[in-house]
Molybdopterin molybdenumtransferase (Saccharopolyspora griseoalba), 414 residues
Amino acid sequence: MTDDAYVSSLNSPSELTPVEEHRAKVAALLRRTPVETRPLADCLGLALAEDLVAPIPLPSFDNSAMDGYAVRSADLAAASAEEPVKLPVVEDVPAGRVDVPPLRPGTAHRIMTGAQLTPGADAVLPVERTDGGTDEVALFASVQPGQHVRRAGEDLTAGTTVLTAGTRLGAAQLGVAAAVGAAELPVHRPVRVLVLSTGSELVEPGEPLERGQIYESNGLMLDAAVREAGGDPTLLRFVPDDVDAFHAALAEHIGSADLLLTSGGVSAGAYEVVKDALRGNGVEFSKVAMQPGMPQGCGRYRDAFAVVTLPGNPVSSMVSFEVFVRPAMLAAAGHRETGRKVRQAALAESLSAPAGKRQFRRGVFDPATGEVSLQGAPGSHLLGSLARANCLLSIPEDVTELAAKSTVDVMLLD
Ligand SMILES: Nc1nc2c(c(=O)[nH]1)N[C@H]1C(S)=C(S)[C@@H](COP(=O)(O)OP(=O)(O)OC[C@H]3O[C@@H](n4cnc5c(N)ncnc54)[C@H](O)[C@@H]3O)O[C@H]1N2
Ligand code: MOO
């Protein structure tokens, strides 16, 4: 029997809280963060709090799609490589020039990409189809009316809703907001998260490692996971395994944090400072029907902030963050999409899973083949295999065996 199967055998399924129940409890703890107006550059990854309506059309005027010559298409009807049409070039129109006189029949304007289309012109012939002349130009092809012209409003008309409330502001969304002239946007402020890890065996990376010690990794990992989820973390590392010191560390952050995220010290051991300090202060501990991630706790600390206690095993911590904390944080920060993308994949090899628990195995999903292969064993200490994975396989509670080629849900991590 593997260690994980053995741990599973210690708890009867009836003692375990269903995953969805714990997920709902965690989600209910976090309050919606307030709306604030931020300059565009400070909005990356945040959720838009109100619909953004375009005050101007995009493009905002008819303009050239190519560097070339603004013409009347009728003047070029007979043009070909063998018998070019020659026209005088009477204006040069760089992008931004607005004092251009109308195009007279039988003439051309040299025009650049993005320049306002000369009034009277109905098409642009790209410079490659010409001799590039500046006083007179030989035009080697005909053009259709409207060819190489970008029409005002063809992307967005004024008054269109460009982005709806709840949209995550990524690069493209910030780009379009800038393009319609928004300098700042109403967004939900990021969830402020205190990330705390305990454990007297933990040593800061870079320091020499004594016998029995390990490098602290959960704090940094969860701090990064909070950032990736659009949150604003404060990392409290090496809080001593002492209840008074633990409360003292928290006291400084009352009023400035939305969520305390701890890792470690919540299972059945004799030195479980997180449990000792938080039990009786609004936090309840339970065992959730999942592997990894069975020992969990959540509540509100002295009604000051939400608390989620994650198990200390590194993979348990990360998987629990994905399953419980990330969706709750995204919802609190006003995001419409709170879940990872889930795909159905064909399992590359057979697997077995504990009865009565949702198991999350680490995997590599290949979108080209639709196949997922396992990364490492189920053990919740196997951080190397998590780091090589791009997805979590979600194996339902009632499934104990899956044959190769079976269909399985995978949660994509990137
Ligand atoms: N008798 C039982 N023992 C255990 C049970 C159980 O039900 N009965 N559950 C096991 C399961 S499942 C898990 S998960 C762990 C959870 O333990 P804790 O949350 O109390 O975590 P710790 O004991 O503090 O640490 C577990 C493991 O993780 C390492 N760790 C902790 N914090 C960090 C950190 N910040 N960076 C890197 N590594 C960390 C720690 O050294 C331990 O190896 O309990 C099982 N035991
Ligand atoms: O399996 Mo624990 O439940 O390692 O998180």
